[in-house]
Amino acid sequence: MTHRIINFSAGPAVLPLEILEEAQRELVDYQGAGLSVMEMSHRSPQYDAIHANAMASVRALMGIPDNYAVLFLQGGASLQFSMVPMNLMFPARKADYITTGAWSKKALQEACREGAARTAGSSEATGFDRIPAATELDLDGEADFLHFTSNNTIFGTQWQAEPDAGKVPIIADMSSDILSRPINVSRYGVIYAGAQKNLGPAGVTLVILRKDLLERVPASLPTMLSYRTHADKNSMYNTPPCWAIYMVGLACQWLERQGGLATMAKRNAQKAAKLYQVFDSGEFYRGTAQPASRSQMNVTFRLPSEELEARFLEATKEAGMTNLKGHRSVGGIRASIYNAMPPENVDTLVELMREFERVNG
Ligand code: PMP
């Protein structure tokens, strides 16, 4: 029997076993074509169908309106930190950024190379333990856009709803909570996400962009860095990451079979609540995020000492679990429980936490 470890990695993260097996079945002979998706011309009819199917599935799952382009790009979410301001920080050449963690700070840093990007709200003063309240935001009504990070992978915080910037388009880095719950896409100017947490394997970045914003894109941009190039060519200007896009298609079909995003949202809320309940019912584990800002994707916590944390990690390893160590910049423990993490595996972790507390608390 295949040995599968319980993988709490923050990304690349666990994928549904079903789609790994599906890919395995089709690996050397894709649906009778006699070759693998990895060996196929990206201009072949077989790949065309895979590409179109992945795009249509993302559109259907998220309810993306027709006035939005869906792009499959490369370079990770990190390249979007640059592409967003290079393409869209016009005409005012100024943008607002809400900094709620290391990734949003990096996004701001890149935007500062392109124009007058500024911090319009931050939770850095309290160690990024929360999402700022609407009343704390200092928004510029003339900014070209407002950027925020919907889920902070390292700090375990998540926006419960997107900020309201009036007529200023909002741009969200959804790398770590895309497809985890229904959202109203029409409230956004741009949504982007690296695939390797909730969407599929590393190698493809999803960008959802309101088409009227393409008018801002300067003609002087390098071809590959222009959203217009990829929108005009349906993400086929050059060779796309075919295999990763194929896997995104399989992941989306799996999500559809589960009942779509409303079902996932419910399941994700239940999984996270089980872990948070362990913190809230005792003194041993201390959640690092303020309760109102808690993430349903990355659950971060501390134990009474670093020595106990090391022993806890050892215990999880012995019980067949991996990747529970917090990000190297913050330490502690982090359980990433994206869509593909089965609820029963969260139960296994909860049981271990209770037992570890009973013995060491
Ligand atoms: N944004 C967020 C919220 C992330 O969690 C990450 C990666 N962990 C990134 C951006 C960077 O993504 P990539 O490695 O795809 O560039």
Could you characterize the architecture of this molecule?
This protein is an alpha/beta fold and 361 residues long. The protein has 2 domains: 18-258, Aspartate Aminotransferase, domain 2; 261-360, Aspartate Aminotransferase, domain 1 (Alpha-Beta Complex). Helix content is 35%, strand content 16%. The protein contains 9 helices and 14 strands. It has helices at 17-26, 45-62, 76-88, 102-112, 227-232, 242-258, 260-280, 306-318, 343-360, and strands at residues 6-7, 68-73, 94-99, 116-122, 146-149, 151-152, 157-158, 170-173, 190-194, 205-210, 286-287, 298-302, 321-322, 333-336. The strands form 4 sheets. It has a 7-stranded mixed beta sheet, sandwiched between helices. Strands 11-12-14 form a 3-stranded antiparallel beta sheet. Strand 3 (94-99), helix 4 (102-112) and strand 4 (116-122) form a beta-alpha-beta unit. It starts with 5 loop residues before the first strand and ends with a helix. Bound molecules: 4'-deoxy-4'-aminopyridoxal-5'-phosphate. 4'-deoxy-4'-aminopyridoxal-5'-phosphate (PMP) is lined by residues 11, 76-78, 103, 149, 153, 173, 175-176, 194.
Our measurement of the CA-to-CA distance between the termini, rounded to an integer number of angstroms, reads 37 Å
Number of strands: 14
**Could you say what the CATH architecture of the largest domain is?**
3-Layer(aba) Sandwich
C-alpha Rg, in Å?
Answer: 21 Å
The number of helical segments is: 9
User: H/E series, N to C?
Assistant: EHHEHEHEEEEEEEHHHEEHEEH
List each distinct ligand once. 4'-deoxy-4'-aminopyridoxal-5'-phosphate
Uncertain parts: none
The main sheet orders its strands as 2-10-9-8-5-3-4
Sheet with the most strands? Answer: 7 strands, mixed
Shape: globular
CATH superfamily of the largest domain: Type I PLP-dependent aspartate aminotransferase-like (Major domain)
Provide the residue-averaged pLDDT: 97
